[in-house]
């Protein structure tokens, strides 16, 4: 994929993985980057605008638990630039105490975002097609008893993505869908994981049953992310673990 001049939306772009991914995208001379997030990181936004003056970088407020804010965010982009080429759904929360919010943000919000994006990007509706990337998790591919609710949402994201990639949809819309599944990555989302786990009283015992995972930095994850975007076919699902990536189905 040639990224030069593309109009990109990154939802959750101020997160740990998100920041490194948007930097990688900007290094490839995209035309416009719209970072959708709940709260603006003004300092980081200014840094991006300064370091990448050839790309337009803007923040748009969004609450992935409220569909009206998702609709409004996309509307703002369309009013400003008229088209969307790439959408990355990278927002998510991990806290098993917040069941309804977790499902709302990680799955329901992602579904709404996909369908709203498709409505704007579809060639059948005047768009120019493009790519939607849904960031799932390794927890969506394997059992993760410490984070059962989180895992359920990420499994849902994978199956939704594969369903949206149906050849009939792609033939008519020109929009492809892929899912990326990062493994354990050093970001704030895994901080204090024991207290946020499904059943904290059994966390240590359960942890012993799942074996060791390859840990990666957000930078390693972002580098793999870009390599995948360059080669991924519609409907493919990719794991990113320990900085390495592979197609899983």
Short description:
With 249 residues, the chain is of the alpha/beta class.
SS-based structural class?
alpha/beta
Q: Major beta sheet, specifics? A: 8 strands, mixed
Fraction of residues in helix: 40-55%
Which stretches are low in confidence, meaning pLDDT under 50 for 5 or more residues running?
none
Which descriptor suits the 3D outline? Answer: globular
* Continuous helix count: 9
Total strand count, please?
8
What does this protein structure show overall?
With 249 residues, the chain is α/β, with parallel strands linked by helices. Helices cover 43% and strands 18% of the residues. It has helices at residues 16-26, 42-51, 67-81, 99-121, 148-164, 167-173, 193-196, 203-209, 218-231; strands at residues 7-11, 32-37, 56-61, 86-89, 130-135, 175-182, 237-241, 244-247. The protein has an eight-stranded mixed beta sheet with strand order 3-2-1-4-5-6-7-8, with helices on both faces. Helix 4 (99-121) runs parallel beside helix 5. The longest helix has 23 residues, at 99-121.
